[in-house]
Structures are given as structure tokens and as C-alpha cells.
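Listing S7. Sequence submitted for prediction.
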Amino acid sequence: MSHAKLIQGYEVVIGFETHAQLSTASKIFSRASTAFGAEPNTQACAVDLALPGTLPVMNRGAVERAIQLGLALGSTIAPTSIFARKNYFYPDLPKGYQISQFEIPVVQGGEVGFLLGEEKRTVRLVRAHLEEDAGKSVHEGFIGQSGIDLNRAGTPLLEIVTEPDMRSTEEAVAYAKELHKIVTWIGICDGNMQEGSFRCDANVSVRKPGAPLGIRREIKNLNSFKFMQQAIDFEIRWQIEQIEDGHAIEQATVLFDPDTGETRAMRTKEDAADYRYFPDPDLPPLVISADWIERVRAGMPELPRLMAARFVADYGLPEYDATTLTQSKTMAAFFEATARVCGNAKLASNWIMGEVSRRANALDLGFDALPITSGQLAQLIGRIGDGTISNNAGKQVFEALWNSENADVDAIIEAKGLKQMNDSGALEKIVDDVLAANPKSVEEFRAGKDKAFNALVGQVMKASRGKANPAQVNDVLRAKLG
């Protein structure tokens, strides 16, 4: 691929498997709650525990969310898909198998597009399939034994699998962030990585350019973008060192330890054959009609990439601005509300991407929880636009708005005496006084020294206590200096 960057002469190849927990109130095959944080084993019913005689019943809401993802990513939605049993034995897997999809998944193909800096990238998807989550082994608080919490058992997941299209850690993290944005934007997943709602597994391998794909190692359960970056970087360096030292890479599943910043092998990687997949006899094929797909499509929100394209077309924004402003639904809505009222989309974009975002990020605030409203920001931008206040004064007004409730822009301007001097007579008098007091600078300017002009502008601004309009000062000075 053209955007591959080499590390010590090696090309990096990365593919992702992401488990997105679906935002249904109940589990995929039972009525038990999916709420997070309950006491261990209080949300596992007879079906989740696989008690004899229990049968799974498909959750319609989980299928609906799979359809939404397929529509958002331009995938094919299989009219008929099949559930399979993935057999393995682990203490937190009550049935001794996991219900998943193997040969015919519900969502097939599709792609995720995003910007890496200013450059457009696309990652192709292989599939997304529905499956149930396993329970959880708990080791904290137990000495010489483990606890098993089956609250998660049966929680609905969509496993989203990419082609090995990524060629750098930066690209992998940008893909994961874009996918996270899409699933939260369309509301199929709450995206809470700390609670395990969005878990990424990265398949990493290295090779010499043009060589066949290398042996991959899978880094499991990366639950933050920061750890993802660190884990993949470490794994790339480790694999290159192994190969350079003459060792062969073995296919394995590894875990990332945030304390040491290293990955460590957990087990050698199984292949599909090791799981002895076969169709689940308790679940009929999942049939999705064209009508059902159209009903879901009608209820879909405007997608981020389409909204960004509209921002470019309707507001004349650069693509970079439009993409940044559609990082979240609340940010996009805040921008639109501001731009509509103030009538200056670019200035609104600059303020929101700059000062507003900087302060929101510092306090970890979403755009739905800001201490400033879109109406207040629009009024502030309007006052800068009509020359009432300067850009610098605008920052002081913004500071006051941010730190006080229900403040009015005009009242702050008045109270702080920030109005620009737009009275040309008063300004001309100040300019005359400054020119009379600074004959040396006037002489230097006429001798061709531009710095002298800037010095005179500074003197006028000082004499007006910053209230003169800088553009107007320039004009009056140039007229008087000839």
C-alpha cells in the first residue's frame, strides 16, 4: 500500500477484531438485564447459566442494531444468516460453548473511512457477526482461587473484523476511534471502554516489503486508545527484534500490561478448526427481510461522514473543520446552532475547535455539559464580527461567559469597558497626538523602516487602552503618514 511506512526496513501489518456491546436492555438470548455494575451473578438467569432444558430466544433489538451497523458502513446485510456453536472449555463459559456466527455472518463487507492528519484512509471490513459474551473470571480478593461472575454471560456483542489493511500504529488507532465514533453516533453501543463495552483485539505482524504476510500475534482486550498505541508499538518492536535475532514468530494470543508497557504471551493461538464450529440446533436461521432493512434505514440518524460533507457544502467549511466538528453528535449540534445564529460558520468553527474544545477537554466535558450556550457564543462572535470588540477582547468576554451563569455578552462588554473605539474623530485625535510625540518613528517609517510603523500602531493602541479597532488604526495612520 502506498502509505506504508517502514520501521527498520520492515512493513507493519495490522488487522482488528472489535467487540462492541450492543445497547439492548436485555441479553441476546434471554430476558436478563445487561446493566453494568450489579452484584456478581445477580443478572444471570437460567438461560445464561445453561441449566438443562433452557432454550435461547433471539433478541430482536440486537439484530436491529446489527442492521444499523451494516447500513452505516455500506455492508451487505445477509438475508439469511446462521448461528454456530464455538466449542471451548473455560470456567466462565457456562455452556461449554459460545453461540456465535461462523460461515454466514449477518453483516458482510463494508468499510470505515477516516482522515489521518489531512490524508484520507479506508479500512475494509470482512464481516460483523452477532454473538454472546462469556462471563468473567475474578482474581482480586481471592487467594489461591478464582471467582466466576456470570453477569456478562449472554450479553449481546457485534464482533467487527477488518482486513489486514492498516500499516502503522497511528492508522490503527485512528481506525479504532472512527469505529468507536460510528457505533456511539448511531446509538448501537455506549462505547464505554472502561466498562468493556468496546474492546479491541489487534492482530499485528511484520514483514519485509513484498514478502508474504508474517505470522501474527493477537493483542487481546485493548480497552483504551492510549494502551492500544503503547501495546501495538511495543509488539512491533518486539517482533522485529525477534526476527533480527534469528527467532521465528509463533502465532499467539498476548495481553498488554499497562504497568510494564509490555505484551506477554497468554496462549498459542487457536485456529477455527480447534473450536469445532457447527450450526446451533436450538436456533433457526436468522431471516432479515428487505422491508425490515428499509424500516431500520428510515430511522437512522444522519451519519457523521454525510454530515461533514453537508457542512462543507452548506457552510463552506474546509474538510478538516467539517470532520473535526463531527467527532460527536453534541459537538456537531453545538456548531450548527452557533453558526445559524451568528451567520459566520468559519468563525464559529474556529472558536469551537479552538477555545471551546481546549477548555472542554481540560475538564473532560461533553458538548452537552458546557457552561456556555451556543446562543452566547453566537452573540460573542457577532460582536467580534461587527467590530464592537476586538478578537483579544473576545477572549476576555469568553472567559467571563465560561465562569458565570446566564451571563449576557453585551452586559460583560459594557461592565469591562471592552467596546472598540469606532468614533473616527476621537481616533484621529489620538493618532495626531502619537505622531506629534514620536517624530523619530515617523522619520524612520518615511525612510522605509516597516518596524517603525508597527511601533506607532502599538503606541496608538496603548493610548486608546486597547479599544481602538486595529484595522482602523492602520488605515488612519497610513493616511496621515502619506
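Caption to Listing S7: primary sequence and predicted C-alpha cells for the chain studied. The mean pLDDT is 91. Residues 225-244 form the longest helix (20 residues).
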